[in-house]
Amino acid sequence: MNVSTKYYCSNCREPLKEQDKYCPRCGCRYRDIERGIKGKIGLKGCAKIRFKPKGKKFSQETLKGWLSSKDKNRFPEGVDMLREVDRKNNVYRKIVRDRRTGKIVHEDIGPLDQHR
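Above: the chain sequence. Below: its structure as tokens.
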């Protein structure tokens, strides 16, 4: 991560040096300090989508995205998960991947009525 600091005159916005006590352009003694930070930000998110006919239980559900893991030693960055439940077509599918390596660590695909 890189941090930078810039100084400007509060009155005329003239760039200043850190040691300047007065603006060389307008003589103002007040200055603004701008601090910049450059780095990488990683976003983690998860979405859950349900199809639910009015007055009934949901017939389809999809959960996809990042989740924290209970096993912090094995998966310190969490896991990516895809879970699909389709009651209409009797399908259950769950795929869990290590967030760091992308390798599948759990896979469960089959009929929903046989899923516990």
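Strands lie at 2-9, 15-16, 31-38, 46-51, 60-67, 79-86, 91-98, 104-111.
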